[in-house]
Amino acid sequence: MRRFKRVLLGVAFAVSAVAGTAGWASGDAQTPVTGPPPGAAAWSADRSLGRELPDPARAEPERVAAFFAGLAPADRQRLVERHPLVVGNLDGVPVELRYAANARARRGTPYERLTRDGRRILAFDPRGRGQIAEVYGDLTRARRVAVIVPGSDTDAGNFDRADKGHRVVAGMATTLRDATALHGPADPGTAVIAWTGYTTPVGVGRDAATGDLAEAGAPRLARFTRGLTAVGAPRPSLFCHSYGSVVCGLAADRAHASDIVVFGAPGMRADSVSDLKTDARVWAARNPSDWIARVPNIHFFGLGHGEDPASGGFGARAVPADGARGHDGYFEPGTDSLRAFAAIARGEAR
């Protein structure tokens, strides 16, 4: 009976802490987008090249890369024209081919604006609220690559809102790109990718308090990083904001990452760096004014995300962030956190 009471008290604490103390009380439940990209069935049935095409649901990025490397330019272009959504989202496809496929796939959709100004869209999936990955810099020449993984309320419709500046994922990416360009905007040294490649929570309800959406997003992130290395890009550093830190924590053991940087993190579904089972360097930042500090670091009956990655006991390398303001101010120009992020992205931090 005493043990039963302790369990009930623990459940009550978890529910009240996650829903009350942190203010996580409202939000719309989301159904995650999973599985192969749209058009996968037609792709799999296509024998126009006289051979079977790689299974978009099962083929490893390395196999996809080898398949496309063996195609003639005309055959590559044929696949772009016939299956733009598959080619544009299939990890392991050459970068320039994905750009071309995604430009074609966006025509006639609410996201057609993203075809303007030569934007480099590396992934585009119109299902649900829309998922997208945009590259800033020259990914084919870059000596270093950084991937920004956003938190709640991010989708293809709002990831690049100009009025939000460095507080949205596209703004974070452009700010980091500028901070790493030591020799001017044309410096190919570091390419930065704004990766809105999973279904994020909306609001601060149950989705934000549980790991369901992160569990659906983690394999997508891991596969995305493997697709980068399969086409010859360096292992990327991951910069994971807020709920994105949960995604990165769950993907850590499968992602081809050189560094994993979490900021404003509610947890990583791990008690320590060693629990992440990664050889990537793990970093954590939290500024004194970030409200995430009020979120209880628990993981109980599916609620909460575990130990605070910025705590000394977690074992992450500390990123200075005293100059940042609020939950989404870590990329503000002139802050110590942005300078540290740039050094990590360039491979200069120790």
Our Rg estimate from Cα atoms comes to: 20 Å
Q: Any idea what the shape is?
A: globular
Largest sheet: 8 strands, mixed
Which quaternary structure do these chains form? single chain
| Beta-strand segment tally | 10
Elements, N to C (H/E): HEHHHHHEEEHEEHHEHEEEH
Number of helical segments? Answer: 11
Strand content: 5-15%
**Parts with pLDDT < 50 across at least 5 consecutive residues:** 1-24
Note the gap between the termini. Answer: 52 Å
> Given the helix and strand composition, which structural class is it?
alpha/beta
Architecture overview:
The chain is globular. The strands form two sheets. Strands 2-3-5-4-7-8-9-10 form an eight-stranded mixed sheet, with helices on both faces. It contains eleven helices and ten strands. With 350 residues, it is an alpha/beta fold. It has helices spanning 2-21, 40-45, 61-69, 73-82, 84-89, 95-106, 169-180, 206-209, 212-230, 243-251, 336-345; strands at residues 27-28, 120-125, 131-136, 144-149, 190-196, 202-203, 237-241, 259-263, 281-285, 317-318. It is 33% helix and 13% strand. The model is unreliable at 1-24 (pLDDT under 50).
Question: What attributes characterize this protein structure?
Answer:
350 residues, eight-stranded mixed β-sheet, single chain, disordered N terminus, globular, 11 helices, two-stranded antiparallel sheet, alpha/beta
